[in-house]
Amino acid sequence: MTLTLIYEDEHLVAIDKPPGLLVHRTQLAAREEEAALQLLRDQLGRPVWPAHRLDRGTSGVLLFALSAEVASLLGAMFEQGRMAKRYLALVRGWPAQDEGLIDHPLARDPELPSAGQTMLEAQTRWSVLDRIEWPIAADPRFSTTRIALLEAEPLQGRRHQIRRHLKHIAHPILGDATHGKGPLNRAVAAYLGQQRLWLHAQRLTLAHPVTGTALRLQASPDARWPASGRVQAENRRLPTKRRPA
Fold first, then answer.
1. Does any domain span residue 240?
2. Residues 78, 67: contact at Cβ < 8 Å?
3. Could you confirm whether 130 is annotated as catalytic?
4. Residue 108's closest CA among 99, 118, 122, 116?
């Protein structure tokens, strides 16, 4: 696999990570032979350090440092929230409002029961970009399924923050095996011809850790997202009759 570079200088490199690719190898996925860190290292012919993480299923902007010193600077910036992150997410249902702020503390480790864990401050801003209706009968009461395309901005970097927060407001991300609904995820995968987590890191904005220059790193979602002509055309062919609110 050849990774798509979206930015490169003597200190940093950013890639457009495809969905399903690990950031780095772990014991939990010991059988996986490919990971972004190793692929990028081999592609550039030099060591690289990941500045942050994306879930395996998440696609989009992933930033690496080209030295341990720059990696340390970036780590402090991420920890202090001195950058802005914007994601696209396809979620179940239509939110009643066009935008909102989720202010809901999260347990440090999402893999463990929340009871007894330290609860960390977490806020996520979100806004609706589009409301869609697909001819998917995941619920026997309805012949169609409502989907919303959201832009989400996590104000911290808690693990699985966007996924957990959107589940908290009853709009889980499609394809999320942990926080979503299995029957709907399977129906969406069959409809779109792809099983994946529909979460994309679209933009990362920060000051360059060495030069101070403003950086705006962007990666467009792939053609299978609802903005693609194929999905838009299918949506336009749907009948205009809507379900009761």
1. no
2. no
3. no
4. 118
Residue 174: CATH number of its domain: 3.30.2350.10
Q: Which two tokens stand for residue 78?
A: 């991420």
Contact 203, 151 (CB under 8 A): no
Determine, yes or no, domain membership for 243: no
- 68 found inside a domain: yes
Confidence of residue 227 (pLDDT cuts 50, 70, 90): low
Look up residue 20 and give its DSSP letter. Answer: T
Give the residue among 164, 105, 97, 151 at the shortest CA–CA distance from 125.
151
Taking CA atoms, 186 is separated from 105, 126, 229, in Å, by 30, 25, 23
pLDDT digits (tens, 9 = 90+) for 163-190: 999 999 999 999 999 999 899 999 999 9
**DSSP code of residue 2:** P
pLDDT digits (tens, 9 = 90+) for 129-154: 999 999 988 888 888 999 999 999 99
Residue ranges making up the domain that contains 211? 4-235
Active-site annotation holder among 9, 16, 42, 55: 55
220 pLDDT above the threshold of 70: yes
- Tally of domains in the chain: 1
In a domain, 147, yes or no: yes
Listed in order, strand segments (DSSP E) in 119-190 are: 119-120, 123-134, 145-154
Digit-coded pLDDT (tens) for 65-78: 999 999 999 999 99
Of the candidates 148, 139, 144, the residue with the CA atom closest to the CA atom of residue 94: 148
